[in-house]
Amino acid sequence: MPSESDFPPSEADLARIARHRPHSGMETPRFSGVASFMRLPTLAPGEAPGRVDIGLIGIPFDGATTNRPGARLGPRGVREASTGTRARNAATGTAPYDLAACADLGDVPVNPIDVAATARIIEAFYRPLAEAGIVPLSVGGDHFVTYPVLRALGRKAPMGLVHVDAHSDTDDGQYGGTHLTHGTPFRRAIEDGVLDPRRMVQIGLRGSIDSADELDWALGQGVRIIPMEAVEARGLDAVLAEARAIVGDGPTYLSFDIDALDPAYAPGTGTPEMGGFTAREALRIVRGLGGLDLVGADVVEVAPPLDPSGITALAGATLAFEILCLLAEAVAARRAR
After folding, report:
1. Torsion over CA of 9, 36, 264 and 149, rounded to 10 degrees?
2. Relative to the CA of 84, which of 62, 175, 184, 323 has its CA 20 to 30 Å away?
3. All domains in the chain, ordered by first residue
4. Global pTM?
């Protein structure tokens, strides 16, 4: 894993980074104050260009879910759970706030009852951030919200994708003729030319399906699907090596659906599937993606109302911090080029 010394920032970078660090639990209790992602300072999106490298953003929308609702409260639950994170990753040694200026940019002002309108709102929210070079780390919300984010980030050139999930989310849509659900985001993104299916890998798919040909469209586009049975047979190290080879050195997005975890570790999600990853395996997956040219990421489908224990929100917050470490390394590596 690269460390801070591999990407020495300039004096100007150091000054900017120093202004955007989380509040220390040694100075004020982590359970106090208004909750923000990782206890980071909050900024309005319009204040971020030139000041922030990585923006943490909530997308509180679950109007495209087809099973159990509740993910609209995911950003709030993950913010609360994330107040327990600290400044350094003990496993990898990465100190993300030494590498990049980070801030909580608030929530997208979604329309909770209109999917198409929300898609336009999300894309419009992310487009100026993308143009300013700000890397987004988003917390959903159902998985539909990834689609307009990808449209904003992939306008100039299609991106690669590492997608960790129990479901492919490449359906065409079958609810009253709509083509916009949490089961369709990656099909829509491929059709729109913002994702390169030949640089796209899906890891951990499992569970029952509606028809034998459900995944044929994605496979026909060149998407690499590694179902849970193959992960179990081959081992995570081999799967991660293949995923890294597929996306290569180009700009890549990471999307992590919390239902990739087994319901024993993340019961609070809309469409749980038995036989998923353990919490420890989820950490291995994220850490195994270090060094990729990540230009954005999200954690989605955390539904706090379905998990009064809070372990799903804790899983979402922990994975968000691990992903933040990867994004900070990627920001620093691009700065050093």
Report:
1. -70
2. 62
3. 4-336 (3.40.800.10)
4. 0.93
